[in-house]
Amino acid sequence: xxxxxxxxxxxxxxxxxxxxxxxxxxxxxxxxxxxxxxxxxxxxxxxxxxxxxxxxxxxxxxxxxxxxxxxxxxxxxxxxxxxxxxxxxxxxxxxxxxxxxxxxxxxxxxxxxxxxxxxxxxxxxxxxxxxxxxxxxxxxxxxxxxxxxxxxxxxxxxxxxxxxxxxxxxxxxxxxxxxxxxxxxxx
Length: 187
Fold this sequence. Notes:
The chain is an alpha+beta fold. It has a single domain, classed as Cyclic Phosphodiesterase, Chain: A (Alpha-Beta Complex), CATH 3.90.1140.10. It has four helices and ten strands; from the N terminus they run E-H-E-E-H-E-E-H-E-H-E-E-E-E. The chain has helices at residues 11-18, 47-58, 92-107, 132-141, and strands at residues 2-8, 28-29, 36-44, 65-77, 80-88, 120-125, 145-151, 154-162, 165-174, 179-180. The strands form two sheets. Strands 2-6-5-4-7-10 form a six-stranded antiparallel sheet, with helices on one face. Strands 3-1-8-9 form a four-stranded antiparallel sheet, with helices on one face. It starts with a strand and ends in a 7-residue tail after the last strand.
């Protein structure tokens, strides 16, 4: 199974992100049910490794963390972008959760590639040259933001690649999911 850890998004956030999924014809937009904040990708694991990872994650103590979405970005070069995303503020709490997840994975013998962590939510995979529309899209949406939400869990997901894109399946949650809105919102 291709596995990764991620934070699911509340319905309100997914609907708001859906409003950004236009303006670049011919690209592969992510379905709203697949929006998530990836914490760590593990790749292909066998059943025993997956069970060990599940067991290690079930012992993690996590604190609620505030997640705030800000801005639009992309991977690749502006002349040849590969992926379009919404940024997530890189808080110490998100980084701490990622470190705990990596430590748990390494404690069961998984070897993890070193990778730069850029918290984001993928909106679109760029399949063909978007031309001038890409710059226009970035300018139009660069100030995107969403009020913070609090995540109290993360999940272990499997990914199945299909001709129309990846499908994600929640395999387990750590602990049970719960979202709340901060008592004071800066709107």
